[in-house]
Write a structure and sequence with these properties.
The protein folds into 2 domains: 10-132 and 296-308, Aspartate/ornithine carbamoyltransferase (Rossmann fold, 3-Layer(aba) Sandwich), CATH 3.40.50.1370; 135-292, Rossmann fold. It is of the alpha/beta class and 310 residues long. Helices cover 45% and strands 14% of the residues. The chain contains 12 helices and 9 strands. The protein starts with 14 loop residues before the first helix and ends with a helix. The strands form 2 sheets. It has a 5-stranded parallel sheet. Strands 2-1-3-4 form a 4-stranded parallel sheet, sandwiched between helices. Helix 1 crosses helix 5 (133-147). Strand 6, helix 7 and strand 7 form a beta-alpha-beta unit.
Length: 310
Amino acid sequence: MLAGKDLISIHDLSADEVHEIIDFAAELKTMQKAGVPHRILEGKTLGMIFEKSSTRTRVSFEVGIFQLGGTGLFLSNKDLQLGRGEPIKDTARVLSRYLDGIMIRTFGHDRIIELAKYADIPVINGLSDLLHPCQVLTDLLTIQEHKGKNFRALKMAYVGDGNNMTNSYLYGAAKVGMALSVATPANYKPDATVFENALTDAEETGANIEWCENPFDAVKDADIIATDTWASMGQEAEHDERKKIFAPYQVNKELLKHASKNVIVMHCLPAYRGEEITDEVFEDNAHVIFDEAENRLHTQKAIMALTMNQ
């Protein structure tokens, strides 16, 4: 279903396509662990444009395309004429003549939209300031591994900043029918358009999507709690101010007392222990968090294989 398509936002996917990615990622993970070759993209080449720094995104895509039998090209602003002002629509049309797919990690979401508009090959959103779909698809795989396939029986809480992760959790939960309660300060809510879109998606799956200001209300009976850094890339100058504002939203032992007895805590990394999450809670959930990190590899591979195999 996804062959030749872009992956810009989970909102653009059908519920069946979301499950297809998750299930195929699980299959590829099993094959990888068993040493079974899966060179689905033999001879294919992925261009990886990085306008933001990265650890997990770069390594997972580069290793993933190699394991699928293809080649990955790391392309920074210093490597491309984009860094000297070439229009992204021209870059898109040039790269379409050389590559089989493009992954881009950038600041403005509009850059991804324009790249996809002018490219003749699949474009994958590796992260923008608005959305981080690959990470949330990865997290859905991780939740499935730890809590089972019945997403409709689960409640997730997100506590912290209404950032690109929050926006993508809204889309992801809505597509799989999972209840999601988001807790942020009033002035740091998730994107309003994303929230409305998620509510519309949730009508089809029965997911209960809500926002509240009180983190203790959000985590009540939650099976999963997720958080993220309080100051994303590009917001470093706001760090000290944000620490004060978000202090009540720290994921700590006291907060976990209000969640389900068997709650798991997730973090997309990097984590700033002592800020959005305590060291104790992080270490208690390290097995989940590093499963989540590993699953970037398997989910990225599923996305590439499903979109680029045409």
